[in-house]
Amino acid sequence: MKAFYSIVIFSVLFAVCMAKLTPEQRRELEAKLLSECKGPSGATDDDVKGLREHEVPKTTTGKCLLSCSQEKLGILVDGKLSIDGLKALGAKKHEGNDKAIATFNEIVAECENISDSDACELGAKLMECMLNGAVKRGIDPKEGIQD
Ligand SMILES: *[C@@H]1O[C@H](CO)[C@@H](O)[C@H](O)[C@H]1NC(C)=O
Fold first, then answer.
1. Which of 3, 21, 40, 115 matches a 20 to 30 Å C-alpha distance to 57?
2. What letter would DSSP give residue 21?
3. Which CATH superfamily is domain 2-136 in?
4. For residue 21, how far is its CA from the centre of ligand 1 (angstroms)?
5. Smallest CA separation from ligand 1 atom 3, residue
6. Do the beta carbons of residue 37 and residue 69 sit within 8 Å?
């Protein structure tokens, strides 16, 4: 579950850098993203830790931290889910693997109607939906979609 969501978190980093990153570089960029969102969302250190471990946040501030990260990733735009943004990230992450991209897009399609007037709640709902879609397909959450 954790690793699957990391696809969503990290895909942008591939999109931005257009190059494979080492795990260390990814962790650094993830930390940067979360630190940029920490202040605006009022998140606690525990909220940050939970998200770094890719747990669906339970606290309001944790949900807002997630939502802020998703906005920076182009997954949430103006308080709404961007299906195109999400698919673009999946495509970057799985570039060259049409099967993995198709699976990713299938899961995205199941989450296309996720909505909430509260952007923070929306972020948490989206994360939960994507995780459920992966688990339902027997994707080992620790492995993510295999390349
Ligand atoms: C999303 O909503 C549209 C329009 O109501 C509907 O046609 C579609 O089946 C819904 N998708 C899912 C995955 O529920």
1. 21
2. -
3. Pheromone/general odorant binding protein domain (1.10.238.20)
4. 36
5. 113
6. yes
